[in-house]
Amino acid sequence: MSLTVKSEIAGANAMISVKGDVVGPDIVKICKAIESYKNSIYEKITVDLTSVDYIDSAGLGALIYSKKIIEKNSKTINFLTSRAVETILINCNLHKVFAIMEAQ
C-alpha cells in the first residue's frame, strides 16, 4: 500500500497521520513531516500510526531518528499505534523507546 502522510494542527498540538506500509524510500515523507515541527511553536507532536500495518527496519530507524531530533529541541513526541504496529515495537523491544498510546 502506498504511504501517505498528512499533518494537521489541533490546538497547541501537531498531529501527523500516516497511512500505508512504512517501508523503503517512502519513509522520507514521515521524517520530513516530523522534523518540520522541530523549530515550531508546537510542543507536542503525535504521530498517528493506526492506519499502518507494517514497518520495516528502515522505517523503525527513521522513527527513532526523528524522535531524537524532536526531543533534542525540547519537544514531546507520542505515537498512536494500531495493534499490528504495537506488536512490531514490542517484538523489537522498542516499546521502551517510544511513548506509545494504543488506539481505542
Would you write up a description of this structure?
- The chain has 104 residues and is an alpha/beta fold.
- Helices cover 33% and strands 30% of the residues.
- It has a single domain, classed as STAS domain (Transcription Regulator spoIIAA, 2-Layer Sandwich), CATH 3.30.750.24.
- A 5-stranded mixed β-sheet has the order 1-2-3-4-5.
- Helix 1 (27-35) runs parallel beside helix 2.
- The radius of gyration is 12 Å and the shape is globular.
- 27% of the residues are buried.
Short overview:
With 104 residues, the protein is α/β, with parallel strands linked by helices. Strand 3, helix 2 and strand 4 form a beta-alpha-beta unit.
What's the SSE blueprint?
Layout: E1 4-10, E2 13-19, H1 27-35, E3 44-51, H2 57-72, E4 76-81, H3 83-91, E5 100-102
Parallel strand pairs: 2-3, 3-4, 4-5
Antiparallel strand pairs: 1-2
Helix pairs in contact: 1-2
